């Protein structure tokens, strides 16, 4: 039975600006892929990211390049060879997983030999602002078990202290998004320790991290922009203690599972992250989150309108989508 592949650009307005060190976004632009076969339709979502040279147009072009393979019945393994890691491959790969579940009646969790997704702690993000504004934002969600603090190089110590004072019990992930340099990373170590920060995520540019080899941080350092697929681990494992697995970087759940398994085998900690996205991006990522030490899947929290039946946040506890939303029947 011949398949049909369709792709479109969807846009989700945000409830407020999402500000990090490299810019601000007020909408989430995504590529949505559907693959139909008979009465079954699988869905997937990818979020092109300019930091990785991606755009909506480039992602749609990559989806189109894979059309013949997919419509001829090509599978996830063939897709890995057809397209590079990134948002386009992620959208197609996740649509294939969903399609397989709907056609077979076997859930994605059962296929990979894992439990069905369950409620878990997921970070709520405090975006960059004046320290007093960040403190107010943190106070509003202080009961959440985990907060992610976006910072820049201007006055990160004040930003971190403001959040810690406002949310004294929450675990903190600090994320400079590559905006620090070596002297600042070194100077911030006492601040991170005093604020009881649990994780420092990608503080420096991914192409300037050689000096991390041999550096002994007071809190673990997580590779984000520095790691996309399992092949990156040989370099990353000598410089970082944790890796952030994002399906949009890895190019789908298939490659993300490979990265997560390889990271565990290398004795690295795991984090599951996401772009600002809908629940259609988050549902597949829950299959990585179940094995992760840190989870940051609050993308849909920022949307004015998410898909019905998607994930829900309950004060930093992420509730999985309703049955039948993605990867289940």
UniProtKB/TrEMBL annotation:
Cofactor: Mg(2+)
Record GO terms (molecular function): metal ion binding; racemase and epimerase activity, acting on amino acids and derivatives
List of residues binding Mg(2+): 175, 201, 224
Origin superkingdom: Bacteria
Annotated keywords: Isomerase, Magnesium, Metal-binding
Span of domain Mandelate racemase/muconate lactonizing enzyme C-terminal: 131-222
Signal sequence annotation: none
NCBIfam families for the chain: racemase_DgcA (NF042940)
This protein's name: Dipeptide epimerase
Species the sequence originates in: Sphingomonas horti
Organism lineage string: Bacteria, Pseudomonadati, Pseudomonadota, Alphaproteobacteria, Sphingomonadales
